[in-house]
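FAQ: What does the model actually see?

It sees only this:
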Amino acid sequence: MVLKLLYLYAAVVAVLLCSSANFIQSPSDVFDPVALLEPTPSAARDFGAVVSEAPVAVMRPGSAADIARLLGALSSAGPGRRPRAAVAARGAGHSLHGQAQAPGGIVVETRALPRAVQVADGGAYADVGGGALWVEVLEECLRAGFAPRSWTDYLYLTVGGTLSNGGISGQAFKHGPQISNVLELEVVTGTGEVVTCSPTRSPELFFAVLGGLGQFGIITRARIPLQVAPPKVRWVRAFYDSFEAFTGDQELLVSMPELVDYVEGFMVLNEHSLRSSSVAFPAEINFAPDFGSDGGGGGKKVYYCLEFAVHDFRQQDSAADHVVGLVSGKLNFLRPHAYSVEVAYFDFLNRVRMEEESLRSRGLWDVPHPWLNVFVPRHGAAGFKDLLMDAVITRGEFEGPVLVYPLLTDRWDGNTSAVVPAAPDGVAYVFSVLRSTDPARCGGACVDGILEEHRRVADEAYRRLGAKQYLARQPSRAHWREHFGAGWDRFVARKARFDPMHVLGPGQGIFHRTDSAAERSSSM
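And it is asked to produce this:
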């Protein structure tokens, strides 16, 4: 095994030397060989499990400096040359379409970076490693009585990973996505420079990497603002048989940020989806709707579940109960089908972990996940719901939740690289089709068919409704240009500045690895 790793190290260093002959004086200038490992199967796999492309090596860096030496070497090819290997940052491996893979290149496993979480300035913020999981951030901050303001639904994702995309959950209407809740970053750029940046210090890099899909740098540290953590949360679920009433009440809730702390919702497609979505909700739900006699046709009845939460800072005589009663009285749910439960703050934020354990027990976690995540302007929400029902959900068996909830687009900083749709009234809806496929029932051709159907839905939603995809790998340069719209030229200019040799993020498929001026200008 040792001999094999030595051969591997020699081969990768030779690749780097070929591309950077005028820069590297010795292999030790590249990186510590201890950090270089033979690729494991996980380096060519992600949560989506629909793409698998192996790297030539894996790097487990001990510091940002290790990453800087690697990227500096790769990006220093002389005129007329191009790097022989690309680099992808991989955190917890929850990409959906191979975005964190580096075919024939090097995968940098950011979980190997220092993951310390330091609460500072009396709880005003926490400095956290880019490879730390959000659940680790939560646990450490709670020890001091604080917590970040904005979350993802699933906490076993890395800080650097979600900040490179967006990071959304039911708090986004109030505080914005996670990328709107960052004070400072440490980033290793595509040229190998370690930069501390913020809205006032190297702001162009700061905003570029937030939502930048790993194209401009690797996030190695983040400073996250904190708030006082409530000990408990009052969590409410209410059921609807009308999409209009369901979304109308969601919009009412997000108009009350002074009262409500979290708003989400999901489609209730059948009895199974009702049961599976209730795994983490620790209260009995006596809701037995009639889904109709047609188990898979277009005439099937669909219901909706709205959920909201209120932070509870008092142990007794809770003010949260009063708020829940006040707010619930304004809603138009199917009475009496509203259910409320008090849970610990940590348990509420970590609720998806129970759903994960349920799926694992049924063999439906480590399977292909052909997901579809779309942001739809408010005016197109009902139309997109109908499109989903016609094209995706009612065709054959469907396993997984379909989340639906509103975002307020003014909570997204337009300086970041993230993309949200134009929404004249400032409201856009998240539709997340979180599908799991049973390999015994849906093999490779079946998964490919689902992905193709999702592509058709996304294309039609873009053309008809002005929708934008989230967490997706676009199939072509033309699709990426459409995705970014007016922001495309800025995105390309940022790439030219911070990763001119196109070393980073090959799995996204946005840029080709070349230093040809002609090719760079054609991408603009």
